[in-house]
Amino acid sequence: MDLTSAAPPRMVRQIRVKVVPPVPFPDISPIAFELGPLVVRWYGLAYLAGVALGVLYGVALLNRPSLWFDNKPPFSPGEWLDFGFWAVFAIIIGGRLGYVLFYDPLHYLADPVAIFQTWDGGMSFHGGLLGLVVALAVFGLRKKASFLSGIDLLGAVSTLGLLLGRLANFINGELYGKVTLMPWGVVFPNGGPLPRHPTQLYEAALEGLALFVVIRLVTHLGHGLRRPGLVAGIFGIGYALSRVFVEFFRLPDAHVGYLYGGWLTLGMVYSVPVLLAGVALVAYASRKPRTRGH
Fold first, then answer.
1. pLDDT tens digits, 97-156
2. Which structural domain range is residue 260 located in?
3. Integer CA distances (angstroms), 24 to 187, 196, 204, 250, 286, in order
4. Residues 160-212: pLDDT tens digits?
5. What is the domain count for the chain?
6. Residue 1 has pLDDT above 50, yes or no
7. Phi and psi (nearest 5°) for 250?
8. Which of 1, 175, 194, 229 is most buried, with most CB under 10 Å away?
9. Would residue 44 count as lying in a domain?
10. Are 165 and 156 in contact, with CB atoms under 8 Å apart?
11. Does 14 map to a domain?
12. CA 272, CA 236: separation in Å to the nearest integer?
């Protein structure tokens, strides 16, 4: 007897895989508007709007003395408005020099004129942050302000600029990530036909929005500004961890590439000092007694 002939037919299960189409890149021009020969880009507007929001939010914090150590804000609202002008130049000069020195020194050494061609791109957050800290130190010295409370104020407001800056990176279609099969992958104009991680939006959400919420809770519910250095430290830790996390999904600059093992990037390396400084500030601030406001 042929038992095989009596066996039931083999059932073949058909598995249907639903293919989610990638998210098309939004039809947003990097140019906000043009006035004759003047071309205004969203990226430049994001810098200005970030400074403006930082100044306004800083004024709101300074107008509440009870938030601060010994009820003494580091600056008056008028002084903080003056620092807004310093901040614009500090971000531009620090960000540009940081990119020149940290990411492509040989190129700019061979062509120094290119240093001033900022319209071709090339800004470093770490350089901009260093520029802001130096500018604040000089400005605070002239106003006889507490340096630690000053950088606390800077840390509390800088998240707003980060949020707008990363959104502008997305509009520019730059600093995108690796190829992904996730349903929110975006096909960028200069990124080839495959969807990629929108790492600019990841950074906007983490470094900008989430870190703003955390620091807001620390300043207003935890009275963190009464411990000079604490808010600045939390900002440093939060930024560094967010940046390192996103770097695993983000493509490094083509002329730099990976430093080791196909995962270590310059963005990670330059975030380590920020992280260590943040940890040191939090440790120092936590040892100081918190004063009461009234």
1. 999 999 889 889 988 888 887 766 688 999 999 999 999 999 999 999 999 999 999 999
2. 37-286
3. 6, 11, 19, 18, 47
4. 999 999 999 999 999 999 999 999 999 999 999 999 999 999 999 999 999 99
5. 1
6. no
7. -90, 145
8. 229
9. yes
10. no
11. no
12. 10
